[in-house]
Amino acid sequence: MGNSPELEKFDRIIEEYNAACSWLLSLVTDPSGNRYLIEKSPLQRNKEYTDQIGRMEVFLDFLDNPQNRYHSIHVAGTGGKGSVTSMIGSLLQETGFRVGVHTSPYLQVPNEKLLVNGKMAAPSKFTGLVNDFRQEYEKFISKYPNLTPRYSEAWVAMMHLYFTQQQVDWGVVETGMGGRFDPTNVLLPEISVITNVDFDHIPQLGTTLEEIASHKAGIIKPGIPVVTGETKTATMGVIQKEAADKNSPLFRFGQDFGVDIKTMSETGSVVDITTPFHRYSDIKINLPGIFQPQNAAMAVTAVDILSQNRKIPLSAEKIEKALRSLEFPGRMETVQKHPTVILDGAHNPQKMEALALSLRAVYGDQTYTLIIGMLATKDAASSITHLLPNVHLIIATSPHVFGKPSIKIEEMTGLIRTINPAKRVETADNVTKAIHRVLDNAAPNELIVVTGSIYMLGEAREHWYPKKDILLEAEYGNP
């Protein structure tokens, strides 16, 4: 890439790529995000959800149902579903399959949501995909003007087309929100995974854990096995009933499968995983965090269940290799040392608590600087309470997300001071300014944590991993 013609070619590729991304964003019906703040009755929400699933089914049928041309695994849950999705993808790939992985949302570039055998689509290929998809999209809305697919629906349809074009054997698909009415819930998977149920996306998914659990349990399909890490009695009852009503075998964490943690550090953990069929010992998980061993147990159990019928050649060696090599940006991700900077997409109370426990497990009582910004739809007060005990400085900022409203910086500052007036709080217009300020004044032995919004982490990562470099590598390999 050293000479001018090559750079000019790449600049043209990026220009066309940016145009394709802009068209996708144009499908967001409310760029302000105010729709998230409008109160709606349960009846209104239910109609919107059923309309969404209806549009999705008609659209995919128009596209000749690409989702039915590969085997699939469907993953829902309040926390950990992105990690479990990635782990399952890595396990299947290691056993010799061509695997598509769809997680949501992306951090820096939308190609992250379209991985095949661990590699994102090159910018030029992504542009071609979007342009081809746009033609089909416009044909569809011309034929069905009252069924215009929304942004998230279009994304899911495009993902199915891409996986089909790439001739994947398996697609591992993470839900966006909930499950029962999520655009991804047109799949007929070979196994379903529900990681857990906790408070998030309120009131869209309901105001009680049982209501939220009903949305998650909606991905259970008749006769299809389901693996869950959920353990709370009330929510487990909802999942059990759905599985029983659909005659779906249910595998429960702590009863049918489990994990023993042997060691844990900033680089990950070493565990023994017990599935209903095998025990896999001394498995190294590359992803740090106190929650990742349970995520790994769900992923391994899901693939082990599949292997009973499909003769998938799963072994301790393959599991070890798949989980040791796995990377998942933005989840307890250490982006630099001296000082240590950790990025984590904790955006609800459960995830904040998990982050706090993970930091304590790895760093003990070490205090840290916290850079935080959250979306207006999140329960910021209940979330940040978990992190405050070990924080000595907080920099409140605000994510800048297209189509999603953020908590204003002054609101975040007020929340923190209400919860703990003794904490030192400063503000920064954006996460980039916050990072520069903290790094300019940090000692080599300090710990800095950036969290609160997955979307904000993309902006934060730009400091260490510029978007242009990511796209350059995706297009040409290592630059």
Q: What would your notes on this structure say?
A:
- The protein starts with a helix and ends with a helix.
- Strands 4-3-2-5-1-6-7-8 form an eight-stranded mixed beta sheet, with helices on both faces. It has a six-stranded mixed beta sheet with strand order 12-13-17-14-15-16, sandwiched between helices.
- It has 15 helices and 17 strands.
- Strand 7, helix 7 and strand 8 form a beta-alpha-beta unit.
- The protein has two domains: 302 residues, Mur-like, catalytic domain (UDP-N-acetylmuramoyl-L-alanine:D-glutamate ligase), CATH 3.40.1190.10; 135 residues, Alpha-Beta Complex (Protein-Tyrosine Phosphatase, Chain A), CATH 3.90.190.20.
- By secondary structure, the chain is α/β, with parallel strands linked by helices.
- The model has no long low-confidence stretch (mean pLDDT 93).
- Helix 3 crosses helix 8, helix 3 crosses helix 9 and helix 4 packs across helix 5.
Short description:
With 479 residues, the chain is α/β, with parallel strands linked by helices. It is 43% helix and 16% strand. It has helices at 4-25, 42-62, 81-94, 123-143, 151-165, 209-217, 233-245, 292-310, 316-325, 349-363, 380-384, 409-419, 431-441, 454-461, 467-476; strands at residues 71-76, 99-102, 115-116, 119-120, 170-174, 191-194, 226-228, 250-252, 258-265, 268-274, 279-285, 333-336, 340-344, 368-372, 391-396, 425-427, 447-451.
CATH C-level class of the largest domain is Alpha Beta
Structural class: alpha/beta
Percent strand: 15-25%
Spatial arrangement of strands, main beta sheet = 4-3-2-5-1-6-7-8
Largest sheet: 8 strands, mixed
Count of DSSP H/I helices? 15
Indicate the CATH topology of the largest domain: UDP-N-acetylmuramoyl-L-alanine:D-glutamate ligase
The CATH architecture name of the largest domain reads 3-Layer(aba) Sandwich
The radius of gyration computed from the alpha-carbon positions, rounded to a whole number of angstroms, is 22 Å
Number of strands: 17
Count of separate structural domains: 2
